[in-house]
């Protein structure tokens, strides 16, 4: 771990202590560099977007070598802290997941998201412990953001979602998690209850119906992620432009809302 990476790790941890950390998730070096240039104080990857960019589906299907190469590409072009979504660690074996974490750290990551999905929460606890061991071995203050899919995957009935989320969060905190990610929660009352009870910075996911950033901060949220939203919007725009171009061959629509060639080239040069 270089001195600059040690500094980035400390800075990323500090960014969760006050205010609201807003993360516009990237999926390659270019999107990460663009987000940084627009004022992003940190960069986080979207596992879905990284997988799609390589032609794989989301859901632990991306080969780890491509994940690590993507992390290295991003770390090469940005100076802000980098957090990496590693899905479920790409293995149900905690030791193997720990080795994935070690590779991510070596490539320049100073934070991770790791999720329980529909698996036994005990398994995520063991993966978190393996991640902590890997980061300690490498001398890195890795920020472990434990994602629970209670809301997103419907792991509990609506009347028990808050209770189940807090129960899992307590277990993940005891295992060594630094933050709790609860994608899918949008109700202000539920957000406030979770934020005030989990004892760790709460991360929520942008989606229709979620309160605005200023309200989220007042509810106690410390991190807001775009997730795959920006990538989905970008792919939607690509689909629209490509469909029109393949149909008509018209050039004019391609000139709308574009970033100039020279500006993009300069962005990738001036680092």
What does this structure look like?
There is one protein chain. The protein has one domain: TIM Barrel, CATH 3.20.20.60. The protein has an eight-stranded parallel β-sheet, sandwiched between helices. Helix 6 (121-138) runs parallel beside helix 7 (161-175). Helix content is 50%, strand content 11%. Strand 4 (111-115), helix 6 (121-138) and strand 5 (143-147) form a beta-alpha-beta unit. The radius of gyration is 19 Å and the shape is globular. The model has no long low-confidence stretch (mean pLDDT 96). The chain has helices at 3-14, 29-37, 47-53, 64-77, 94-107, 121-138, 161-175, 188-197, 213-219, 229-248, 261-269, and strands at residues 21-23, 43-44, 82-85, 111-115, 143-147, 179-181, 202-205, 221-225. It has 271 residues and is an alpha/beta fold.
Draw up the topology in text.
Elements lengths: L2 H12 L6 E3 L5 H9 L5 E2 L2 H7 L10 H14 L4 E4 L8 H14 L3 E5 L5 H18 L4 E5 L13 H15 L3 E3 L6 H10 L4 E4 L7 H7 L1 E5 L3 H20 L12 H9 L2
Parallel strand pairs: 1-8, 2-3, 3-4, 4-5, 5-6, 6-7, 7-8
Helix pairs in contact: 2-4, 4-5, 5-6, 6-7
Quick overview of this protein structure:
This protein is α/β, with parallel strands linked by helices. The chain has eleven helices and eight strands.
Give short descriptive properties of this protein.
TIM Barrel; 50% helix; alpha/beta; 271 residues; eight-stranded parallel β-sheet
